[in-house]
Design goal:
- The chain is mostly helical and 196 residues long.
- The chain has 2 domains: 2-98, Cytochrome Bc1 Complex, Chain D, domain 2, CATH 1.10.760.10; 113-193, Cytochrome c-like domain (Cytochrome Bc1 Complex, Chain D, domain 2, Orthogonal Bundle).
- The protein has 10 helices and no strands.
- The chain has helices at 2-20, 24-39, 58-70, 78-83, 87-98, 113-125, 129-132, 150-162, 172-177, 182-193.
- α1 packs antiparallel against α2 (24-39), α6 crosses α10 and α8 (150-162) packs antiparallel against α10 (182-193).
- It is globular, with a radius of gyration of 17 Å.
- Bound molecules: heme C (2 copies).
- Residues 51, 63, 123, 126-128, 130-132, 141-143, 145, 148, 153, 156-157, 167-168, 170, 172-173, 176-177, 188 line the site of one heme C.
Amino acid sequence: MRVWTIFWALLMAHAASAAADTSASSVISAKLEACTLCHGAAGVSQLPETPSLAGQPEGFLQWQLVYFRSGTRKSAVMQPMAAGLTDDDIRGLAGHFAAQAPPKPGANGAADPAMYSVGQRLAQQNRCASCHKDDYAGAQATARTANQREDYLLKALRDFKSGARTGGGVAAMGDAVYRLGDDELRALAHFLGHFQ
Ligand code: HEC
Ligand code: HEC
C-alpha cells in the first residue's frame, strides 16, 4: 500500500496544477500523466498486477472506466481514480491508450513451451478466441489479452472465477472460467502472456 500512497501524493499535485489551467485538453493531459505513473508512459505497465493499456480496444477501455466510476468493477486503486473522470475525460483517455502500440511478444520474458501448449489447448477447448479474436487483440467491449502482463492476466482470471470481478453485468467471463481450476488459469495466463 505504501507505493499507492506515493502515487496519491503525486496525483494531488497533478490535480492542483490542472485546476489552475481550466482548458479541457490540459485537464485531460494532467489526468493522463497520473495514469502513466502506474500504466507506463507508452501504456505498457512495469508494475505488478497492473495492466498495460496500450492497444486495448477503445470501447473496452471506455467501459472499464465507466464500471470503475460506477463501482460495478471494484478496485481500491482504480475506483477513486475514475470517480473524478467526466465522460469527455473517459473518451479522451481511452482514445489515447487505444492508439498506442500494444505490448510485444516477449514482454513477459521467455515462454515455458510445455505450459504454453497446455494453455493453448485450454484456450481452444474453451473457445476463448470466439470473443477475444484469433490474435487475442480483442474488439469493442472485449479485452486484448495478447502479451498482457502474465501476473495481471492470472489475477483477472481468478477475480472472474471468484466473482470478485463481474464487469458490466455480462456474464461472459464468469461463464468462461467457472469450470476451470487454478492450474488451468495459470496455464491460460501463461499462454496469453506469451502469445505469438
Ligand atoms: C496508483 C496506480 C494507478 C493509477 C494512477 C491508475 N491506475 Fe488504472 N489500474 C491500476 C491497477 C492496479 C489496475 C488493475 C485493477 C484490478 O486489479 O482489477 C488498473 C486498471 C485499469 C483499467 C482496466 C484495464 C484492464 O485491462 O482491465 C483501466 C482502463 C485503467 N486502469 C485506466 C486508468 C486511467 C485512465 C488512469 C488515469 C486516470 C489510471 N488507470 C490510473 C492502477 C492505476
Ligand atoms: C463470450 C465471450 C467471451 C469468452 C468466450 C471469453 N471471454 Fe474473456 N472477456 C470477454 C469480455 C467481454 C471481457 C471484458 C470483461 C468485462 O467487461 O468485465 C473479457 C475479459 C477477459 C480478461 C480480462 C482482461 C483485462 O485486461 O482485464 C481475460 C484475462 C480474459 N477475458 C481471458 C479469457 C480466457 C482465458 C477465455 C477462455 C477461457 C475467455 N476470456 C473467454 C469475453 C469473453
